[in-house]
């Protein structure tokens, strides 16, 4: 053995002997402590680590047994005891050790290290609602953890957890001390009961916990159809027509079964636009299905009051409406009065005409008012319904003023056209004809094709809009309207308005002022071009780009000079 090896061996033996001697001396004055580590329910926690620190140095440590018990020998002094097990929050305990102070530390409770804090656990909602509840998940452990989730919910409930991007997740990874926010999304079924319980379970490091959400569900009074009036006047032998609109109260299509419960002496049926009897229809959320309830009062019917029940039934709800038919010896007498029997117009324009509908009879009635034109290029609708058909309820002697909107297509050639107004009541019918004299065409065309504009914060972007009058009449007072996407973006026009003779072009110059506060991105600016009754819509796309300063070129020069210096000194050292 060489001299150096012998010296190393002697040094190791000396250090080991010194360590064992110091350990023996140190243990002679130690104070004995013992205790038990349990969870929040009082159950023992085995394999928990207990570490005693003096400052930043570890003095001693121990591990709990299966029953959670532990023991420690500690010299007198000031210490910090850290109790920890993966999945639990660490517990820090500062204590002073003297020869007289020792013995039991009692029960030490470790709390679970993962917690979920919802913004609410008691929720009020309605059938068919989409409920969103934010959850904050905390990791107070000293280890990174994967937290998994599961749900227990009533039948037909749809439950999911989504992250900030709206993506469904069933677990989340948390670093020590980290917290994240998820959103619990609950789709309340249409047949949900008044009180429902949803439980969220979450699991980590062989531990678990649960949160219960109580939903108090308001039961809806479902409306699938509307009846214009609940009381109808009739007489023996009368035929009564009642318009019925079927609509889905939800955002989805719903199959609806319809049936009638009628008394003797009255025959009732539901028909569609083609006059075909219907029993089941698909109710749409934004497009009412128009039906007609046809009632026929038997000539032998007694002068009395009869009740008809109209029932709409779905898989989750039912609506029942009573319609009262008063059979008496009465009549209605409808009249239509218009201010003008002839109108002058140009193609592409929109006209508005007011007319008066009057019931000069002695019984209330539901009048079915219809407007039609003898050209498909003329669209006519009544303002109360938005269609060419409207149901109007009139008391005896009552007058109602209605508006008729007439839209003339730009392709409608000059000429004279006939518009017909008709009103059908229980016992009477009224008709009124109106002439429309079309003398020219109103047609506005946008020649500009590129609606993208680029600018920078603190600058003014310009845009030219070119218009053409392709009609036969002058378009006066052509103006623009622009909806700004931000208060930091404003628009001005030059000119503010203009006039376009037939077969001519003109342009607006738009100045778009972009504030320094506007961030980089794409902005949509809805543009409306108005020329009398003509309205044309476009979208101006404003792209705001970040302004490039001098910092980047200077940085590039600096990097280049530094690279040359490094190469120069490297070569110089190699030559040496």
Sheet with most strands: 5 strands, antiparallel
Q: How many strands appear in the DSSP assignment?
A: 44
Apparent shape: flat
The rounded distance between the terminal residues' Cα atoms is 43 Å
How many helices?
A: 2
Q: Which ranges are low-confidence, i.e. pLDDT below 50, for 5 or more consecutive residues?
A: 10-27, 549-556
Rg (CA only): 42 Å
Q: What is the helical fraction, as a range of percent?
A: under 10%
What would you call the structural class?
A: mainly beta
Main β-sheet, spatial strand arrangement: 8-10-15-12-13
**Would you tell me the overall average pLDDT?**
86
Please state roughly what percent of the residues sit in beta strands, choosing from under 5%, 5-15%, 15-25%, 25-35%, 35-45% or over 45%: over 45%
Provide structural commentary:
The protein has 576 residues and is mainly β. Strands 8-10-15-12-13 form a 5-stranded antiparallel beta sheet, with no helix packed on it. β12 and β13 (168-169) form a beta hairpin. It is flat and about 120 Å long.
How are the SSEs placed, and which strands pair?
Layout: H1 3-28, E1 31-38, E2 49-54, E3 57-63, E4 69-74, E5 77-84, E6 91-97, E7 103-109, E8 114-118, E9 122-126, E10 130-139, E11 145-152, E12 158-162, E13 168-169, E14 171-174, E15 179-187, E16 195-204, E17 207-218, E18 225-226, E19 231-234, E20 239-246, E21 254-261, E22 266-271, E23 280-283, E24 289-297, E25 305-313, E26 318-327, E27 334-338, E28 342-347, E29 350-359, E30 365-373, E31 378-382, E32 389-394, E33 399-408, E34 415-424, E35 429-441, E36 444-446, E37 452-455, E38 460-469, E39 475-482, E40 489-494, E41 498-500, E42 505-514, E43 521-531, E44 534-544, H2 551-575
Parallel strand pairs: 1-7, 9-17, 19-26, 28-35, 37-44
Antiparallel strand pairs: 1-4, 2-3, 2-5, 5-6, 8-10, 10-15, 11-14, 11-16, 12-13, 12-15, 16-17, 18-20, 20-24, 21-23, 21-25, 22-24, 25-26, 27-29, 29-33, 30-32, 30-34, 31-33, 34-35, 36-38, 38-42, 39-41, 39-43, 40-42, 43-44
